[in-house]
Every structure is written in structure tokens, then in C-alpha cells.
Amino acid sequence: MSDLPISSDTAAFEVAAVRDAQGRLTEPCARAARAMMATHGFVILTGLLSHAEADAGLALVRAALDDPERSRCAFASQTDNRHRRRDFCALPASPEVTAFAATLARRLEDVLSAYCGREHPLLEVTTLTSYFGSSHQYIHRDPPGVISLFAALEDVSDAQGGTVFVPGTQPSGIAGRPHDPGTLALMDLASIAWNWRILRHNLAKLWAMRGSTEAPLGPGELRDRVFSTKWDEHQPNLLRFLIGKNPLFSLAMLTPPTLWRLWRHRAELRHRFRLVQTAPKKGTVILYQSDMLHAGPDNRSPAPRRLFSMSLARGPVTEKMWHSGYSPHPTLKERPMSFGDLLNHPAAQEIEPTWA
Ligand SMILES: [Fe+2]
């Protein structure tokens, strides 16, 4: 997005996946990945899945998307989901999906184990697909206490909207040293500045889509995205912005003292935090701490962007917290699984899985 100062250079956050005889990351590789997670809040593991495995994962995603009875996700971008700009849905806990998730868990065991105990629940397995015309999410934090994973099943370009991260913004701090309150306040201030630009970007894009032949607005779409009373934190909804009903960004945040601080700290905000957009190649897996600042950009290309995603709890969770922040498929709710269940799954023991 030209309005935001975003870097596409992700080299400093990448670790090339190297596996041992048991199929897991080698200790030096896992150590490097753990250090990235502790320092930056996320790590990009290139080549964790072979192309055949990514293809097998993509077949699972396509099967879910083709199902008219699919279980739509209850979080983030509901309006985009309704207007076919995104398709975020939960994958069923079928033998194939579970085998895919178990293989990922096994390969990443020595990284995930730094955060997740074996008894901690698998919160959801989903697919995050976005299409041309989707909105750029506001910079936000997901509910805390979770490690989330994105697997690229195809090459994802900048224009398709690879996830944007703000390195080092996990509230737990850098390498075990918590951020001081002043730094956390500066992160909030930076988010306000970025989200103002995202609001403008989304509105300009919607305006341009009115007469577009590439991504024409659907019936009622402009009203739903700009003037609706319905809950959706990631739309450029002016009504909810004006009445303060969007907790991520609203007029109520633009108080005179905040505007003054934005002006006074403008140079520091420019240099202190940087936005990095990922463009993962097929087979790359990204792990991130859920409460670091990030956003799913809009897809500015005609090619759909499809990601496989799963989330593991870093601690015990209440059912209320689980179901309000994440979207487990009904089959996962019926038969919950833990990180340990995934590691004990027969597919997790296969070095070269037979399902791929
Ligand atoms: Fe998010």
C-alpha cells in the first residue's frame, strides 16, 4: 500500500527449514527460529513444506471452499466474507486435515514447545482466502496467549496481500525483557497513524471500485462497508468510526492530546517501528505471537490469495475466550484436540507423509 511505509525485505526474519532424520527441524534451525520468535515475535520458515505437500494442503483448502455448507469464520472481515471479497472458513477435523496439521506440529515441535504445552488446545484450523477488492485490515493485535501459523500453499505476492507484521511489538517484550509502558504507548500511537492511512486507502479504493469492471461493487456492498451498523472491525465504516463503535480505530481516539503527541513524536514514530510485508513462497510457514501488531492487507491482484492457518493456545483457555476469538470447526468443538494429540497422531511420525 503506497500510503504506508512498508518494507518488503523479510530476510532478517527468515530461517531456512532443515529437517533431521525424524522429520523435525534440526536443533540449530529450531534454535534460530526460537530466537526470531523471541526477538521479533514472528519467524518465516522457508521450505518447511515440499511442493507436493503444499499441493496436498491446497486440495484440502479447495475442498473446504467448494463446500456450500462450509463453516464461515466468526472473526475479522465478516463483511468481506459476505460480499465474496474474502473466504475465511474453518476446516473440518477430517483425517486428511488432521494429518496435515499433525505434520506441521511435528516439524515445528521444538519451536512451538517453547510456548505451548502438550495439553494446550488446538484452537482452530482455517483457510484464509482473499480476493480482489477486499479491504486492508487495520493494524491490530489478535487475542493474547496464542501462537498462530500461516502456511503458504502457493506463492503469495505483495499484491496478493501477504501479512504485514510490526517486528518486536509483542507485549511480552524482546527476548524476555518486557516493554516499558512508554514503548507500549508509542506502539498505540503508531497504530493510530497507520490506521488513519488504512482508512483513507480503503475509502479511496471503494470509491474507485464504483465504476470498476475488474471488481464492481455488489448490491448493498458500499452501504455495508461504509455505513452499516453491523460489527466488523476491519471495514472503512464511517458510521462506526464516527460513533466510536470500532475498538481498533475511531474518531474518539483522535483527541487533541493524542493529535499533539502524534505531532510531537512524529520523527520517533517514523524510525522506531517498521512495517514489514511478507510475500511467502509456496511451502513457507510463518509462526507469530498472536498479540504482536499485524494486519492482513487487501488483495490487489486478480489471483486469489489462499493460506492455511492454525492456532495453538499458549496456556489453558476458557471455552468463552476460545469461541469468541477463534473459529473452531464444529467437528473440532465436538472432539477437541491438543498440541500433544497432534504430536501423537500417526501422520506426525511419518518423515515423508504418505498423504501428500
Ligand atoms: Fe489478526
Portion in strands: 15-25%
Mean pLDDT, as a whole number?
A: 92
Biggest sheet strand line-up:
2-3-10-7-12-6-5-4
Count every helix, treating DSSP H or I runs of 4 or more residues as helices.
13
- Please compute the radius of gyration using only Cα atoms: 20 Å
Low confidence ranges:
none
The coarse silhouette is globular
Number of strands: 12
Provide the structure class. Answer: alpha+beta
Q: Terminal Cα separation, in Å? A: 36 Å
| Largest sheet entry | 8 strands, mixed
Name the helix and strand elements from N-terminus to C-terminus, one letter apiece.
EEHEHEHEHHEEEHHHHHEEEEHHH
Keywords:
356 residues; alpha+beta; eight-stranded mixed β-sheet; four-stranded mixed β-sheet; globular; binds fe (ii) ion
